[in-house]
Each structure stands twice: as C-alpha cells, then as structure tokens.
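Handout, section B. The chain below has 696 residues.
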Amino acid sequence: MSGLLTVVTPVWRVQGYLTECLDSVLCHQHDAAVQLVAVDDASPDHCGALLDVRAAADPRVVVVRLDRTRGPGEARNAGLERATGDYVWFVDGDDWIVPGALAVIEARLRSEKPDVLVTGVARERWNRQVSRWTTPDRVTCGPAALTAPPPPLGGLIVRRQLLLDAGLRFRPGAYEDLVFAYEVLLTATTVATVEPACYVARPDRPGALRATGTAAMTGAVAQFGHLLGRPEVAAAGPEVRRRVTARAADALLGVLHRVPAGSRRGMFAGIAALLREHGPDRPDGLRLRLVAGNAFTAYRALRAVRRVPRRVARPVRRWRRNLRKAALRGYYQWQLRRPIDENLAVYAAYWYRGYACNPAAVYETAAELAPRVRGVWVVRAGGRDVPAGVPTVRPGSRAYFRALARAKYLINNATFPPYVVKRPAQVHVQTHHGTPLKTMGLDQPRFPASLAGFDAERMRRNLAKWDFSITANRHTTLLWDRQFPIGGETLETGYPRNDRLARATPADTAEARAEFGVAAHERVVLYAPTHREWHPVFTPVLDVDALAEALGPDTRVLLRGHYFYDSLGFPPSHPRVIDVSRHPSIERLCLASDVLITDFSSVMFDYAVLDRPLVIFAPDWDVYRAVRGVSFDLAAEHAGTFARTFEELVEAFRSGQVQGAGAAGMRTRFRDRFCALEDGHAGERVVRRVFLGETG
C-alpha cells in the first residue's frame, strides 16, 4: 500500500496507552488515507497482541517485530524501512494525534509539498491535563536551525525520499529523537508549518523513558558529537558555528543535571572535549570557558553561586505576594466594617470571564428601571466582551475588594470566591446560566465523572449566601429546590438573557445575518455543542466541513465551540463554515441562524424561544446520560429532531424532517414546558423584585 503519509509507531511497554494512540491515527481522522507501521520492539507486555488484533481488522496497519529490544530509535528505523508513504510521521505509542489533524496535514502537504512540515505540539501531563501547544512561528533550515531549540519529533512530518537520499536514520542511544530532528532541518531546503497542535506528547507519564534520569542519558554527548561533526556545520561561518556549539553545550548541560550524580563528572568531561573540538578557541562566558577547560569543580561552584540569587529571589517574591495579599485582605476586612452603598451593584459572569449572560441582561434592564443603582463588573485580566462605558474592576485589586465589601447587590451567574463575605445587609442574586438537562448541584455526587473540582461543603456555604435564585421555568424550579436548596427566594421569572430573543424582530434577524455576510436565500445552521467531562480536550462528534458539503451550496454553518475547549482543535476549512467560537454574543448567533444543531447544551432552551427548527445531534447520548446524569429523556422529549449518526442528521435535512409538522409538534410541546415564561420581560421582573422591592 502506498499513499501520501505513513505513521511509524515504535511500541515498547505502552500497553495502557497503545489503543488510544492507534485510535487517534485510524479512527478519529475522517477517513484520512494513512498507512500505519507499528514496530513491536520486543515489548514484554500485551502490546504485541494488541497490534495483531488491530492488523487483522485494518489493512492499513503493518506490524513489524524485532527479535530483541533495540530502543525507540532503531525501532523507528525498522518502521521506516516498511513505510511506503510520500511522507513519514513518527508517532510514539504512548502519544496521540489530535482529532482532525490528518486532514489538515494532508491538505498542507498536497498544497505546498515541503521537505518538512512542522506542526504544533501539546503536552499531556501525568494528571491528564493538556497544556497549550508549542506553535512553530518560523522554522529555519540549514546550519542556522541548530542555533534554536529543535521542534519535538512528534511535530515533524518528513518527506520520505529526503530521508532516503540523505541516509538519515535514528542513531542508537538516548536523545536520538532530538538529534534526528536537528539533522532533518539541517538537510531540508523547504519547511512549512501548521500552527495548531496536531500531536500530543506525554513526556512525564509514569514509566516514560525520560521521566527519571539514568546513566544511559550520558549518551547525549555522542549524539551531539555526531551532529556537530556534520560537514554542513563545519562549512558554516564562524558565527553560526559559535552559536551552534553554545546551543549544544547548553542542551547537554541541561541533561547533565538529570543524570545520576555518579555519572556527571564523566559526562562533563565528554562535553568539555566536544566543546574544545568544535567550539571557538575562547568560548563566550565564564561558564562555557570552565566547561571547555573541564573544570568540573569550578563549574559546580559557579552554578551554586549563580543559583543563590534565584533561591533568595523566590522566597522574596513569595513573601511580597503574600504580604500584598494580606494587605488586600486586611483592606477588605476594613471595608466590610464601612457602610453599605445602597446604590451599588457588583456584577460577574462565568468566573469573571467577561460581560455576558443573565447578569448582563439584568444590568441593562436595571439601567432603565432602577437608574439610581450603579453597576460595576468584575472582569479578570484578558476578559472579553465588555461594552464601552461599562465600569469594571480587576479581581484582587483594592477597587475589587471595596466594591465587594460595600455593594448592596451582588449579581452572578456562577460563584464568587470562597473568601467573599456576604454581609447581612447585602442582597445576593444567583442568576445561573442555563436550564438544566444534566445533573447539577447536590445531586452530582451520584455521578462521579462530574465531580472534578466539586466541593460539596463549599457549595453548601455558597447556597447560604443566596437571597434570590432565578429560574427559567417550573422544571428548573423543581430540580433546584433539591439541587440548590436555599433559604432565600426562588424567582421563577424566565431568563433575562432571553428577553432579547423573545422581543426579536425581523429587522434584528436581518442585522445579525448581515454581520456574517449571509445572503437572503442562504440557510444558516448554527452548531453549538457542549463539553463532555470525560474528554480533557476538544473531541468533535460532528464534522462541520462534511456537514456543509452535504447540505449544499445554499447552506452556511456557524461553528460555536464551547469555551472550556480553548487549547486544542482545528478551525473548519470549508468555505461555507465560519468559526464563531469567540463571537461575544450567543444571542446574536441565534438570531442570525435558521436552524440550531446542538447536543446537551442549555442553548437548546434559549433557542426554542425563537420557535425555529432545532436538531439534537447526540451520537453519545447513552454515554452522557450514564456518566453525567440527566433530568429528562432528551431522546424522547426533544424540541424537533433527534439524530444519532451523521447519516441520520443529513437525511433529516434532505427529507424536510427538520422543518416538518412532526418536528414542529415536538417543538411546541418543548416550548410549552420550558419557555412559557419567556415573554421578553424576565429582566424586568427580576429588577422590580430585587432592586425596587415590588412583590406583586
């Protein structure tokens, strides 16, 4: 089998990760054409059996077996011998490829045909948290590439013929991947990049080869010796050679401090010999001169001396931070003894992310009906979507603590930090941010997968602070009487944020559509999925590019990703798909659309206010119901159309089911149950009760 891309995967003692790795290549890439060569490096666990099962079921998989364990470098070399693709990607058996990555990579390879494609790489820590990616801004070819840190091996997709022509292979020993990456860039003449993360590495997982230092890591000296001895480096100018050797020495000294203490002196001598052979006669800086002179004791003394300021500075910085924090808390305690400002309200939304949701709607309504009440918003650094003229305070500032201590009203759709004191004279309004489909509050312990960050005792203390809890309908009121039991008053008013939808006119819709350049004849489909607690990163269940293609030239798709997933994922590439994940107003997106596709997101309850076609696409409904817990059977009581597969979804549009009488009937029943109070005056009802004290 031949094609564009071969993935080569060395496999040794990764049985707990291997299936996830193989699935990421073969199952989550939208039918990308790929060959996978998996090399069993005489792994002593069940890896070989897992590979046999996969190869028997999938002709794209080629299994290579080594007679004894030779290490990842030689295993990759063996895989390279069996590769047939135009390009080769080395993917370790305990790492994985981001869903959708291969389609993006294939498109870039076909369009640019580079020697090397460098992609972003993310890192998944031992606790399964994924860091933001390393983005390749600009990658240099030739000897100058050796003056910068090399891209991680998982971020390199290399033209196979380049490797064959140059005779590039992985060398035996530790750090073979780093030197191979340098050699590839040294040899290449054209390099392209993909900014988003395509590859996720697990460098510190338990059992990883480099998770703990070993004497074998001293082999890095020989690896760099081979690299510095390349003729391209020798032929480079003196300034480039100086920078290359300095970079190599820095890298090796970094390794030196990770190897066992008994191996350090010998490794240091190897670094010294390398620097004398390839470096300038007088290296830059005292540190490198000590290395070149093999002055190990003096080098250690210098390092110890230079570490003293850092050791002193860290506690000093910590002491200053703690002192400032104590001073601010003291200031807060003082402000708590000062009089309440009867005409001040503090607003917050989504843990200080910005100006949004029900608090924003209450703020705007209060400006009309209770203008005596001044509003100030808490918005963290980098917070978005604050309109001009809206007063803000930064969390942790004096103004922040002063406002929290003295405001008569505290309005939030999430929670304030635990240190926030609710004074007896203050009024705390919890607006929430969605009608609940999933299990919430004090019911959550029944579903362990939902308990990340959950603190029942903290929730109990928060509930004691709430004077008002806003609900959108009877369904929510009944649930939250058990899930969020408060001693205050439940305001069953509808959601203030939906007033804009309830009062929307054709002119509002036309204005929203014009923002996205939508023609009058085009159908706009808004896709707004929620997050899944069991997925640490964005794992799409719907291919929006394929959807746009299937629905035809008169359909535009707006993709609204959940804000929890901002570290991994690919923007759509279809010309009729627009990524609106960072658009400031979900209400405006709803107005611009003709149809909503969602899954378990509470946006379904808001969108139903518009009485427009609504589709639930939930291939993992059974999983969500079992893992997260739900308050009603969405599959039976949805608001129009329910699809479990992509084929069902497309057919529902093509057949007219989405806009048919059956769907309209389902939507009517859904609206009667969940939207009966959404008449455009929910914000007014809240303001009149909370700020004006009206009870009628």
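Note. The longest helix spans residues 296-336. Compare this with the example in section A.
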